[in-house]
Amino acid sequence: MFRSRAKEEKAPTGKVTADLSKHPRSPEAPKGRPTPKRSEAQTQRRRASSAPTDRKDAAKRQREARRTDMARQREALASGDERYLPARDKGPVRRFVRDFVDSRFCIAEFFLPLAVVILVMSMVRIGSLQNIALLLWLGVIVLIVVDSIGLTMRLKKQLNERFPDEPKRGAVAYGLMRTLQMRRLRLPKPQVKRGERP
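RE: above sequence
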């Protein structure tokens, strides 16, 4: 009984010593990667030396990089350049949704101006004007809901036909949010005219 336990304890140590006794790597043996060219080594050294040495310098560089990225993004939103657009606006699906919405006349895009007019009318102390404002408010909301339902159905159908294998999650909601913005204030800027096929 004691013998078997002693043998079990000795067995693993024998394995470890066998692993350690393997001959060490020869200095002339290959290192497993090619030696870099002189130009590559110099560029690596330059990068290491140009790395910021203190926190203030690093923060300054980070701010400058962020500012450059934001400027590029603003230009892309104005011109429609796909490379620098924010992640929510990138891709062929989102581009098609934008073009689909921009090529149509939507009631929802006049929601903000109409809301201001209705609000002013409701603040006037004339009972008949306040009643008209309330009816207008209800009418605008009903029209926007009906128009949005129609747009949703048409957009879903077009997306399924044109992009059967692409992920379309959030594309319809993206289009509906775009309808709520006035055409000239939309970002990325509209790339198609009204009535033009996307």
